[in-house]
TrEMBL record:
Pfam families per UniProt: HTH_1 (PF00126), LysR_substrate (PF03466)
Organism: Caballeronia sordidicola
Domain HTH lysR-type span(s) in chain numbering: 24-81
InterPro entries tied to this protein: LysR_HTH_N, LysR_subst-bd, WH-like_DNA-bd_sf, WH_DNA-bd_sf
UniProt cross-references to PANTHER family, sorted A to Z: HTH-TYPE TRANSCRIPTIONAL REGULATOR, HTH-TYPE TRANSCRIPTIONAL REGULATOR GLTR
Protein name, UniProt field: LysR family transcriptional regulator
Superkingdom of the organism of origin: Bacteria
Sequence similarity: Belongs to the LysR transcriptional regulatory family.
Length: 339
């Protein structure tokens, strides 16, 4: 064999080797999976929204690139060869992974510099909010912040008036949404410092027997949780005084008007003004943790969600340094509890 013939053979073998090593075309693979799942070229064309000839041509191209026959065209209806059956059973995860990668890459490209609409419940907005808003303002082209009760935030998210919310509802019953636990906190009873409480060695029951109970709005998510704690402890507090702002409730307790049940985040809304005027009373029974979640539509704002979680953790840690008396009631490393 002369040198020229050997050279042509070597080049030909290299070309075949390169073709065999070429990655599988994912679009061709997706078209083949549609044929395999529907059982015919025409049905696959209907599912994919392309012509039957395009399906046939794309499938043939996949077979050529693999060097394998995947479909036995001599049989009616079409049937898969052993190689085709193997690919149909194992290729779907590749297609799913490719779609997720595309969606996440798209989200990453949009999350920085985009217009963001975020909702926050009052207690979070008034404590962690300033640090978080500062971070978001630097990472978005425009920012809209809606502050209010949890139910209003949830309705706005469902109505697509918000892109994400920080709330106590994880939306576990809505598959279109995903949630991320930001932090948890225990409920705690509070009473004003004075002769009446200092001599009580206070518990929920001694407080209820000696002081009026100041309720948080019964229509709010926080108020509902507080009522549940009262029922669990068999405390039937008289409906005499009710407020709809946590800082107002803390002020009234500090002034000696009664006792209340609240959370560290709610207490931090008033800063350190009442640290020396309020006594904390642990709740031993029926005190499930209050969980704060970031809720987004599934697959959206993944990068920004990570940044928000980090910002919330840092801001909360700083607040607890300034409110050390509340740190025992914020188990930041604990797992989520049932709501």
């Amino acid at each position: 064999m002369d040198t020229e013939s050997r050279g042509r053979r070597t080049c030909g073998e290299s070309a075949v080797s390169r073709q065999q090593d070429r990655p599988v075309d994912l679009y061709q693979l997706d078209v083949f999976l549609a044929v395999a799942s529907t059982g015919s070229m025409s049905a696959a064309a209907g599912v994919l929204g392309i012509s039957q000839s395009a399906v046939s041509q794309t499938t043939a191209q996949l077979e050529q690139s693999l060097g394998l026959i995947l479909i036995d065209r001599a049989r009616r209806p079409l049937s898969l060869t052993p190689a085709g059956l193997y690919i149909s059973e194992n290729a779907e995860p590749l297609i799913a992974l490719a779609r997720r990668m595309k969606a996440q890459a798209t989200e990453v490209s949009k999350s920085e510099g985009s217009y963001l609409r975020i909702g926050m419940i009052d207690s979070v907005a008034n404590t962690i909010g300033p640090s978080l808003i500062r971070m978001l303002a630097a990472r978005t082209s425009a920012l809209s912040v809606q502050i209010g009760m949890a139910t209003a935030q949830e309705e706005a998210l469902l109505g697509r008036d918000l892109d994400m919310i920080i709330s106590t509802n994880p939306f576990v019953d809505h598959p279109a949404f995903e949630h991320r636990l930001l932090y948890q906190e225990s409920f705690v009873a509070i009473a004003g410092r004075g002769e009446r409480t200092e001599s009580l060695s206070p518990t929920l029951h001694t407080l209820a027997a000696s002081l009026p109970f100041i309720r948080f709005s019964r229509t709010s998510t926080l108020g509902i949780r507080i009522e549940r704690i009262l029922r669990y402890n068999n405390i039937d507090a008289q409906r005499k005084l009710e407020v709809d702002h946590a800082d107002t409730m803390t002020l009234l307790v500090a002034q000696g008007l009664g006792w209340a049940i609240t959370t560290p985040t709610c207490l931090m809304q008033t800063g350190t003004r009442f640290a020396d005027a309020v006594t904390l009373v642990p709740i031993d029974k029926g005190n499930s943790l209050r969980s704060i979640f970031l809720v987004t539509r599934r697959g959206e704002f993944l990068t920004l969600s990570n940044a928000i979680a980090d910002a919330v953790s840092a801001a909360l840690d700083g607040l607890l340094d300034a409110h050390a008396w509340l740190r025992p009631y914020v188990p930041m490393d604990e797992e989520a509890s049932d709501e």
